[in-house]
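Collaborator request log, item 7. Partner lab (contact: R.S.) asked for a structural prediction of Riboflavin synthase to inform their binding assays.
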Amino acid sequence: MFTGIVEDIGKVKAIKRGGQSMQLTIDSRKITDDIHLGDSIAINGVCLTVTSFSGSAFTVDVMPETVKGTSIQSLQLGHSVNLERAMPANGRFGGHFVSGHVDGTGIILRKRKLENAIYIDIGIAEELSKYCILKGSVAIDGISLTIFDIQPRQLTVSIIPHTLSETVLGIKKERDLVNIENDLLGKYVIQHAERQQKETPMTMDFLMQNGF
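Returned to partner:
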């Protein structure tokens, strides 16, 4: 479990590509100061497992499904990535519940500045839109952010200068891919409601029979 508060910007040091899988080595002295084999690290919001580490770098394996469904597929040597270690049980919870299980990717459509805020419009699949609500939470490349506008195929977030300078969103440009993780609690509620509606349709008769 993560919070969406990025700890460090790492650099892709090595990439070993399989047929559909990948092995990544990421350089980050801050992260490797306290790291163990098997630890969970969110890389641009994707939860991955540390398989080895040495000095200021650590290595993770990326399965074919993860490569296909996230922006990991577009990483190149030297690219910067957001990094966050799993939240400790006694840690401060500064963002929102982030699982590191990415729901899909989006495309940066526009970045625009308004005084001390940078608004970023992100194109997303319509399937992801139903899990987004105005002023609700969303993780973009692993960053806990608030939705300021939502359309059927687009969401808008606002970034303060600190977040821009401390995450890869300050580097990314229009047309770049980003990982999207919808709010965990919202996904459970909506999927449970949809399943319940199929099993027991919410009709007026049903409501009256149950005291509504």
